Amino acid sequence: MAKVEMYTKGYCPFCVRAKHLLEKLDVEYKEIPIDGDSELRQHMIELTGGHTVPQILINDEAIGGCDDLHALHAAGKLQTMLEK
Protein backbone atom coordinates (compact mmCIF):
# COMPACT_ATOMS: atom_id res chain seq x y z
CA MET A 1 0.00 0.00 0.00
CA ALA A 2 1.08 3.58 -0.62
CA LYS A 3 2.73 5.83 1.93
CA VAL A 4 0.31 8.69 2.60
CA GLU A 5 1.16 11.72 4.73
CA MET A 6 -1.04 14.70 5.47
CA TYR A 7 -0.01 17.99 7.06
CA THR A 8 -2.97 19.35 9.03
CA LYS A 9 -4.25 21.86 11.57
CA GLY A 10 -6.82 20.95 14.19
CA TYR A 11 -9.45 23.54 13.22
CA CYS A 12 -9.29 22.94 9.47
CA PRO A 13 -12.54 21.72 7.86
CA PHE A 14 -10.69 20.83 4.65
CA CYS A 15 -8.36 18.57 6.66
CA VAL A 16 -11.39 16.81 8.15
CA ARG A 17 -12.91 16.37 4.69
CA ALA A 18 -9.67 14.92 3.27
CA LYS A 19 -9.30 12.55 6.23
CA HIS A 20 -12.89 11.36 5.81
CA LEU A 21 -12.26 10.45 2.17
CA LEU A 22 -9.10 8.51 3.01
CA GLU A 23 -10.85 6.73 5.87
CA LYS A 24 -13.82 5.90 3.62
CA LEU A 25 -11.36 4.31 1.19
CA ASP A 26 -9.62 2.42 4.05
CA VAL A 27 -6.35 4.23 3.39
CA GLU A 28 -3.89 4.39 6.25
CA TYR A 29 -2.18 7.76 6.51
CA LYS A 30 0.20 9.60 8.79
CA GLU A 31 -1.22 12.85 10.09
CA ILE A 32 1.35 15.56 10.78
CA PRO A 33 -0.25 18.39 12.77
CA ILE A 34 1.53 21.72 12.31
CA ASP A 35 -0.52 23.77 14.80
CA GLY A 36 1.78 26.36 16.37
CA ASP A 37 4.96 24.80 14.94
CA SER A 38 6.47 27.36 12.57
CA GLU A 39 9.50 25.17 11.77
CA LEU A 40 7.30 22.22 10.78
CA ARG A 41 5.07 24.54 8.74
CA GLN A 42 8.15 25.86 6.92
CA HIS A 43 9.27 22.27 6.26
CA MET A 44 5.81 21.51 4.82
CA ILE A 45 6.05 24.53 2.50
CA GLU A 46 9.52 23.54 1.30
CA LEU A 47 8.45 19.93 0.79
CA THR A 48 5.12 20.51 -0.94
CA GLY A 49 5.21 24.07 -2.24
CA GLY A 50 1.84 24.62 -0.57
CA HIS A 51 1.09 27.21 2.10
CA THR A 52 -2.35 25.99 3.17
CA VAL A 53 -3.51 22.82 4.88
CA PRO A 54 -4.03 20.08 4.27
CA GLN A 55 -0.98 19.27 2.18
CA ILE A 56 -1.04 15.64 1.11
CA LEU A 57 1.80 13.46 -0.10
CA ILE A 58 1.41 10.03 -1.67
CA ASN A 59 4.64 8.06 -1.93
CA ASP A 60 6.56 11.30 -1.24
CA GLU A 61 4.84 13.07 -4.16
CA ALA A 62 2.95 16.23 -3.22
CA ILE A 63 -0.55 16.04 -4.66
CA GLY A 64 -1.93 19.25 -3.14
CA GLY A 65 -4.83 19.73 -0.78
CA CYS A 66 -8.34 18.50 -0.12
CA ASP A 67 -9.83 19.59 -3.45
CA ASP A 68 -6.93 17.99 -5.32
CA LEU A 69 -7.43 14.73 -3.41
CA HIS A 70 -11.15 14.69 -4.24
CA ALA A 71 -10.46 15.57 -7.89
CA LEU A 72 -8.03 12.65 -8.19
CA HIS A 73 -10.65 10.36 -6.68
CA ALA A 74 -13.42 11.64 -8.99
CA ALA A 75 -11.16 11.15 -12.03
CA GLY A 76 -10.38 7.57 -10.98
CA LYS A 77 -6.67 8.33 -10.55
CA LEU A 78 -6.40 8.19 -6.76
CA GLN A 79 -6.77 4.42 -6.49
CA THR A 80 -3.98 3.91 -9.03
CA MET A 81 -1.69 6.17 -7.01
CA LEU A 82 -2.56 4.30 -3.82
CA GLU A 83 -1.73 0.94 -5.37
CA LYS A 84 1.85 1.88 -6.26
UniProtKB/TrEMBL annotation:
<keyword id="KW-0249">Electron transport</keyword>
<dbReference type="GO" id="GO:0045454">
    <property type="term" value="P:cell redox homeostasis"/>
</dbReference>
<dbReference type="InterPro" id="IPR011767">
    <property type="entry name" value="GLR_AS"/>
</dbReference>
<keyword id="KW-0963">Cytoplasm</keyword>
<keyword id="KW-1015">Disulfide bond</keyword>
<protein>
    <recommendedName>
        <fullName>Glutaredoxin</fullName>
    </recommendedName>
</protein>
<dbReference type="GO" id="GO:0015038">
    <property type="term" value="F:glutathione disulfide oxidoreductase activity"/>
</dbReference>
<dbReference type="InterPro" id="IPR011900">
    <property type="entry name" value="GRX_bact"/>
</dbReference>
<comment type="function">
    <text>Has a glutathione-disulfide oxidoreductase activity in the presence of NADPH and glutathione reductase. Reduces low molecular weight disulfides and proteins.</text>
</comment>
<keyword id="KW-0813">Transport</keyword>
<dbReference type="InterPro" id="IPR036249">
    <property type="entry name" value="Thioredoxin-like_sf"/>
</dbReference>
<keyword id="KW-0676">Redox-active center</keyword>
<dbReference type="GO" id="GO:0034599">
    <property type="term" value="P:cellular response to oxidative stress"/>
</dbReference>
<dbReference type="GO" id="GO:0005737">
    <property type="term" value="C:cytoplasm"/>
</dbReference>
<dbReference type="InterPro" id="IPR014025">
    <property type="entry name" value="Glutaredoxin_subgr"/>
</dbReference>
<dbReference type="InterPro" id="IPR002109">
    <property type="entry name" value="Glutaredoxin"/>
</dbReference>
<comment type="similarity">
    <text>Belongs to the glutaredoxin family.</text>
</comment>
<dbReference type="Pfam" id="PF00462">
    <property type="entry name" value="Glutaredoxin"/>
</dbReference>
<feature type="domain" description="Glutaredoxin">
    <location>
        <begin position="4"/>
        <end position="63"/>
    </location>
</feature>
